[in-house]
Design goal:
The strands form 4 sheets. The protein has a 9-stranded mixed beta sheet. Strands 10-9-8-11-12 form a 5-stranded parallel beta sheet, with helices on one face. A 3-stranded antiparallel beta sheet has the order 1-2-3, with helices on one face. Helices cover 33% and strands 20% of the residues. It has 2 domains: 191 residues, Rossmann fold (3-Layer(aba) Sandwich); 165 residues, Dimethylsulfoxide Reductase, domain 2. Helix 4 runs parallel beside helix 10. It is α/β, with parallel strands linked by helices. The chain has 13 helices and 19 strands. The structure holds iron/sulfur cluster. The site of iron/sulfur cluster has 13 residues, from helix 1.
Length: 410
């Protein structure tokens, strides 16, 4: 048995303060009860066979089969994309050779942020600023269960570098996050209860009232909120697109971005989108470095073409516009879409419940658990190195895809 320092790969907070007790591949966190980490480490790997049509096979046969499917395919989609920097790079090499399309599990919500940045730009926040500098934090409808320690580590930290004493927290939304609810007696925060439609109205009224004289504003809630914004020296606004009404979440993101721009005319405010689930930020950043385009990009024409609607996973599968989909997920057991009329490959963790339902299943290890890796943090300013902590001989996503690439000319 030994205790080691561990950087957790299971969400984009990439907590690097974890002490892990390791004993014969059993891993137990000693200083956190993060539910996502605990449930991820609890998965018991009983068998790690690759499968073809549900039947057990060996890894070379499964990779051979995948290579044949890609060569035969007229249109291949890489979906899910739960992988690290090396896995994304290897995917892009295959996508370039075989003219594939690349999307991600969180594509639907993330593209709302992409569109807003493309049209309006933005002022962005780091987690360090959030923790150590923000005197006002506005949280817009974000329970953020996908990054369970966000509140504990960055919004209500035990201490801050510059000893920030007074901090005002306002939660705007319909459902109070678990953390706030559980600690309601210990922490102080204000809750403005609004559903998505009223939230959009509220934000828009705030933005339009910023330059009004206080006496002209009759709504007390609006007035108090405006006063708070005007007294702020270093403000943060957080939001989570996936928790907003899907029909108007793009309008809300636009309104938040415009509000931040307006606020920066007299004080400092910046924003952080909490939409980093399944490491979409890592995948997206690598795509931007390598191709100049974000997720939902096709290489079918021999050069990258980006379209947030045309290259949506669900749309491509529903309309059968592809004949092969390769799902990648090396972090968790998230459900994948299987359409029996489209060949489906899953490169996933060995416990994935749908491994027998796909044409080819190739088991892979988890970055930062079974092999060394790099992942990008939620605020995109830190690329964290992660170390192998478990002794299981599973390949990584990039190793599998590099083997497929080697078979290109065979
Ligand atoms: S918050 Fe995220 S990174 Fe931190 S311990 Fe939990 S799952 Fe891991």
């Amino acid at each position: 048995m030994k205790n080691i320092n561990f950087t957790c790969p299971f969400c984009s907070l990439l907590c690097d303060d974890i002490q892990l007790e390791t004993k014969n591949n059993n891993l137990k966190p000693l200083n956190t009860s993060c539910p996502l980490l605990l449930s991820s480490l609890k998965r018991e790997i009983k068998e790690q066979f690759p499968r073809i049509n549900g039947q057990k096979t060996n890894i070379s046969q499964a990779i051979e089969n995948l290579s044949i499917l890609i060569k035969k395919s007229k249109s291949t989609l890489f979906a899910g994309m739960g992988t690290d920097i090396k896995g994304t790079k290897a995917t892009l090499e295959i996508a370039d050779i075989y003219k594939c399309i690349v999307d991600h599990f969180s594509g639907d919500s993330y593209v709302k942020n992409i569109k807003s940045v493309q049209e309006l730009g933005g002022f962005f926040l780091t987690l360090s600023e959030l923790k150590n500098r923000s005197d006002t934090i506005i949280i817009i409808q974000s329970s953020y269960d996908t990054a369970p320690r966000l509140f504990e580590k960055y919004i209500f930290p035990k201490d801050t570098i510059n000893n920030l004493k007074k901090r005002k927290i306002v939660f705007i939304g319909s459902k109070v996050p678990q953390f706030l609810y559980k600690n309601i007696k210990k922490i102080s925060f204000e809750h403005i209860k609004l559903d998505s439609v009223n939230l959009l109205n509220f934000l828009s009224r705030i933005r339009n009232s910023i330059n009004s004289e206080v006496l002209e504003i009759k709504d007390r809630r609006l007035l108090n909120f405006l006063k708070l914004l005007k007294q702020t020296n270093y403000g943060s606004i957080l939001w989570s697109v996936s928790e907003l009404d899907n029909n108007i979440n793009d309008l809300i993101v636009t309104e938040i971005t415009l509000l931040i721009q307006e606020l920066n005319k007299f004080t400092r405010f910046s924003g952080l989108s909490l939409s980093g689930s399944d490491h979409i930020l890592t995948v997206n950043e690598v795509m931007l470095w390598q191709t100049g385009f974000p997720i939902r990009t096709s290489f079918q024409n021999g050069f990258p073409v980006h379209d947030v609607n045309l290259f949506s996973t669900k749309r491509l599968i529903d309309n059968k516009e592809i004949d092969l989909v390769i799902w990648i997920n090396s972090f968790n057991e998230k459900k994948i879409i299987i359409n029996k009329k489209i060949k489906t490959v899953l490169i996933g963790i060995p416990t994935h419940p749908q491994k027998k339902n796909v044409d080819v299943f190739i088991p892979v290890g988890t970055p930062g658990l079974d092999y060394n890796s790099h992942l990008i943090r939620l605020d995109k300013v830190v690329t964290a190195p992660l170390k192998k902590v478990r002794n299981i001989s599973l390949p990584s996503v990039d190793q599998v895809l590099n083997k497929v690439k080697e078979r290109q000319f065979q």
